[in-house]
Design a protein that fits this description.
By secondary structure, this protein is mainly β. The chain has a single domain (3-725), classed as Maltoporin, Chain A (Beta Barrel). It is 4% helix and 57% strand. It contains two helices and 40 strands. The chain has a 22-stranded antiparallel barrel. A four-stranded mixed sheet has the order 1-3-4-2, with no helix packed on it. It has a two-stranded antiparallel sheet with strand order 23-24. A hairpin with a 5-residue loop joins strand 15 (305-326) and strand 16 (332-357). The longest helix is centred in the N-terminal third of the chain and has 23 residues, at 3-25. The radius of gyration is 27 Å and the shape is globular. The relative contact order is 0.12.
């Protein structure tokens, strides 16, 4: 059965269910916290029976916002750092956005959603779920906006704390904790926090390889231990200068060093008796980043607003991979030295002016400028009898790697106009026009400069059939930002036989037309939310692996542009309170995503799916609050639909499958308001597997060399968390 058939069958089934719910709802009174403009309001009193400690605890109780097991919901936001591809701020991610007192945090690594665990519940006056569009909002293009409104005056300052202990697969334990101090001093609101969290990981994997004639080749068993802790310091300040102007300042410093040790056993079955070789790797890793951001807003007597925003951040990353052959007598011989370092910096300024005109209409115009720079270096040393060893390369012989030392810089200017029109009490329209001008230059081993420009329109129309039922349609041209790491040579962590990946200085931005149709229904009496989204994307200049081989004896691939392709699918969500079974505090959640795609592969000339573009995923979960016992518990189960989640490369094809992932928790609150939470992450084995077919020469020769079957897991992690507020 084709994916298209599955999509339409799923759509038909859920459409019937939704229709029945709508008909039944006609006989039930409307949800009393939904306003005529479809905005939903949850006052602080709504959460009183749950004894929440933080604002995040409150969000977790709202249908369609929090996750079943806590820790945040579907909040959008830019990815951090130029090296990861998310540069600038943009006009909205299309997902849910969270703001505080109508304002978003001027930050990317330090986002508003990250403050929810640092704001105490007693500071929250009410929470709004805003489903319409407005020029008064600080974010645009979101499916819904979650506005956490704090009391204007706080009775006292508060100190919240958390202490936690994690236990891992290998019985290692790691402590962590955090402190957050928040309050108000005159016109100044502040949140100061410090956190130390374990990021330890113990992964084990097994790879079995057979040759083309299905005879055993080898078996590789690997144990990888990452000794990582995350240390974060952050500050968020909000100052009301007067009734017309306000300013906010945010800062973050984070250190995430990740030293890793690897022990690998490779058994060769091609000899009799079989032989086992032992390798170990030392990979010290240094990672840190900082960010500072702020904004100033001035509101005129007419209601018009001027806003200025700036963000500056820096991400540093360095690692040195050294591999040793371990012999039977305990001696070692180094056979690999790979040193990687990168520094990404970003500077963003944005200014805008918003004013209303006529009735229920407003327009915002402004511009954003972003400068992003990646400085990257790679040094490779190998044992080589023909070269001269160097101490700078771990005592091995330096190797020539193309495009190994480069600096990539993008300067982007984006003027924009955003027009909002509340056509009537039921209908709103948001239209956006952005013009992107960018210059990307590369210096070092490669010297090149290129200019790009794109016009990016968007139209978002929303219609409230009733205050509970909203229909939404949007059309948008999206221009994907290039990953700077694709421009330069880098490490290949997925393939021990391939030491480096080539860079490609000729990349162009991938862009696509994005079409979405969405329906959301908030069930009466706060029973819950159901919604459906149908999407279609038409992509141009899709980025995937291409052939950049310098010669037939040296096959290499890199990310490059391969042409046009399509994505389409449907997403169905439900978040329902079980009032019909007299269990109003049992919240059941589900999410079904079914999708497909097609593009022409540059190596084989066949139609295939986009790389790693899975068939979809099913998430099921529940959260049950038992107020009389001051406890709650929950579980979330997630499973993707396996099959045909492939990556095509110049000389191999990899297919990925995985087992379901389960997360569970139970939580108690004592009479002092202190919370005790027990978590189990990866409660099932959660094996993630990959089958890779390697070919002799290019894959289009069809000459199979071997088939590798690898499975890996990090295992179950259990933790105890204790938090409270003074």
């Amino acid at each position: 059965m084709s994916i298209k058939t599955l999509v339409f069958r799923a759509l038909s089934s859920r459409f019937v269910t939704l229709t029945l719910l709508l008909l039944a709802a006609q006989f039930v009174s409307a949800q009393d916290n939904v306003g005529d403009d479809s905005t939903v309001v949850y006052p602080a009193s709504y959460f009183a029976e749950f004894n929440p400690v933080t604002a995040q605890d409150m969000l977790d109780r709202i249908p369609g916002v929090g996750s079943a097991t806590g820790g945040g919901g579907n909040f959008g936001g830019s990815r951090q750092g130029g090296g990861n591809g998310g540069r600038g701020l943009g006009s909205g991610s299309g997902g849910s956005q969270i703001i505080i007192n109508g304002k978003r945090t001027a930050g990317k690594n330090n986002q508003t959603s990250g403050q929810m665990d640092r704001i105490t519940a007693e500071q929250v006056d009410y929470i709004q779920i805003i489903r319409g569009t407005s020029g008064e909002l600080d974010v645009r293009g979101s499916s819904q906006v979650v506005n956490v409104v704090l009391f204007e005056e706080l009775s006292s300052n508060s100190l919240s704390f958390e202490a936690n202990m994690d236990r891992y697969l290998d019985h290692n334990t790691a402590p962590g904790g955090s402190l957050a101090y928040s309050g108000q001093s005159g016109a100044l609101n502040y949140v100061l926090s410090a956190a130390a969290e374990p990021r330890y990981d113990h992964g084990v994997s097994k790879e079995t390889s057979v040759l083309a004639d299905f005879s055993l080749n080898d078996e590789v068993r690997e144990e990888r231990i990452r000794e990582q802790d995350s240390y974060d310091l952050s500050v968020n300040l909000d100052y009301e200068i007067n009734l017309k102007s306000s300013a906010r300042l945010n800062g973050l410093y984070s250190q995430n060093d990740n030293p890793t040790d690897v022990l690998r056993y490779t058994t060769d079955f091609r000899v009799n008796p079989s032989l086992t070789a032992i390798e170990r790797e030392e990979i010290p890793g240094d990672r840190d980043n900082w960010e500072i951001g702020g904004d100033y807003e001035y509101v005129m007597d007419s209601g018009s607003r001027f806003k200025f925003l700036f963000i500056s951040n820096r991400n540093d990353s360095a690692s040195t991979r050294e591999r040793f052959d371990v012999f039977a007598d305990g001696s070692e011989s180094k056979d690999l030295f790979l040193d990687l370092a990168s520094t990404t910096t970003e500077r963003i300024v944005r200014a805008s002016f918003t004013r209303g005109f006529l009735e229920d209409q407003d327009i915002e115009f402004g511009a954003e400028r972003a400068q992003t720079t990646l400085a990257s270096s790679l040094d490779l040393g190998l044992p080589d009898s023909t070269g001269t060893p160097s101490a700078d390369f771990g005592g091995l012989v330096p190797q020539n790697v193309s495009n190994a030392n480069s600096t990539v810089e993008e300067i982007r200017l984006e003027p924009f106009i955003i027009y909002n029109w509340n056509i009537n009490s039921r209908t709103s329209l948001e239209s956006t026009l952005l013009y992107e001008l960018s210059q990307i230059s590369q210096s070092g081993d490669v010297n090149r400069k290129r200019d790009f420009d794109f016009i990016k329109p968007k139209v978002d129309l929303r219609y409230n059939l009733t205050p509970q039922l909203q229909l939404r349609g949007s059309i948008e041209k999206v221009v994907q930002q290039l990953r700077f790491s694709d421009f330069v040579a880098s490490n290949d962590p997925q393939d021990n036989d391939s030491l480096t990946l080539a860079g490609n200085e000729n990349l162009r931005q991938e862009w696509f037309w994005k079409y979405d149709i969405n329906a959301e229904y908030r069930l009466p009496n706060d029973i819950g939310v159901v919604d459906a989204n149908i999407f279609y994307h038409r992509h141009t200049d899709v980025i995937s692996r291409i052939d950049v081989s310098p010669s037939e004896d040296d096959l290499q691939s890199a990310n490059g542009n391969i042409g046009e392709g399509d994505m389409y699918g449907i997403t169905l969500n439900a978040s329902i309170r079980m009032r019909m079974f007299n269990m109003p505090n049992l919240l059941v959640t589900s999410r079904l995503n079914v999708r497909d795609s097609n593009i022409t592969d540059p190596f084989l000339g066949i139609d295939r799916r986009f790389s790693r573009f899975g068939r979809g995923r099913l998430n099921l979960g529940f959260r049950h609050d038992v107020p009389k016992w001051n406890m709650n518990y929950g579980l979330e189960w997630s499973n993707r639909f396996d099959s045909n989640e492939k990556i095509y490369d110049i000389d191999d094809i990899a297919d990925y499958i995985g087992e379901p992932n389960t997360t569970a928790f139970v939580q108690f609150v004592d009479s002092r308001g202190i919370t005790y939470r027990f978590d189990a992450r990866n409660a099932t084995s959660n094996l993630q597997c990959r089958e890779r077919q390697r070919y002799i020469g290019r894959i289009n020769t069809g000459i199979l060399e071997e088939i590798e079957d690898q499975c890996a897991t990090s295992g179950r992690v259990v933790s105890l968390k204790i938090n409270g507020t003074f």
